[in-house]
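Person: Please work through this fold.
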Amino acid sequence: MSLVMCNIATSGNDNNNNSSHNHHNEHDKNAVTIYRCPIASLDCMEEFAGHTQIDYGHPYSYGINSSIRPTTTPTPGLRYKNLGKSGLRCSNVGLGTWSIFSPNVSSEQAESVIKLASDNGINLFDLSEAHSGIRAEIEMGKIIQKYNWKRTTYIIVTKIYWSTKSEERGLSRKHIIESVKASLQRLQVDYIDIILIHKADSMCPMEEMIRAMNYVINQGYCLYWGTAKWSHVEIMEAYSNCRQFNCVTPIVEQAEYHMFNREKAELFLPELYNKIGVGLMAWGPLSMSLSENNERLMFTTKGSLRNKSQSYSWTEDELNKEDRMDETRRHCEKLRELGLLAEKLGCSLTQLSIAWSLKHEPVQSLLIGAVSTEQLHTNLQALQLLPRLSPPVMLEIEKIIDNKPVRPLPVSTLALR
């Protein structure tokens, strides 16, 4: 391989200086001209930065204690990708507003966080009535009008169905159309970029739901639609119905994805992307992390959240209690090891979690949240950590968490009988 590369370089030099080399022999004159081609994508350059051994060097800080430096240029490491197999280009980091518009965050503070995100190149903003009610859409609409953002420069994502602040639930045609119109009024925009159906409704026929989404798209109320917290079976059913009734198909699934929740995002969603073009908008890298100062472990396993009503009996619950405690201890131990690795890399565990999620190809946009400009700036510095996550470092993380999902072996129906 080295010899071939040298020949290419020599041929290129001869072609560029052929007027001063007329003394070459006939063999050189008959040499085949080889043209160099540009690299197809700069993303792949990060993969060639890996070393045979782990490099913990960190010549610069990843924003743990750095001051805020707002800039009009995109954050280093920020990329723009097509969402699903659509033509919609979104930043690989989106801003989730579930914490920004929480009751303990003032309107001025929320505005500063959203403004900082926009100034740093983030163009995707995720809204949800489930977490902040209608305040998120109202405040976002005011911010858009205040700064007079061009409609082509930002992407609004909002959800339908799960509204804990209202009794209007379900995915009927009536509720979908009314919800979309209400969101348009609160946001003060002509259309919504993406509407997500938050959880499938078992009480509503799938045909009615997809026909309603097709209607709001044809009316120009929204441009694309997707799903959130749907199983791969439900997504495939929706896609099949769309093809059957000639309706617009979904382009994205919003799913939880972090170091301790990997099965859906790594086993099933890449397959759906390859087959039907449904992309992945991930959330959750902060849900497995720690307090902001990294002083105390805050992680709780799903098993420890089980309540008594989910158990068959009090005796069974007592027997499983020890197993759940062991599971919690194992997870805490893994987090401690990840924290030590993060220290070697010169970053926080939260930043390591964000960078790890972005390192995986299926993730086309990762939603992060923040309640202050300082927290948002610190989280965005995780993008600069991506080149440092070389294959050896990723392998060490894999050894620590030790939970790589594996597709179960197919079971024969004859064996079941």
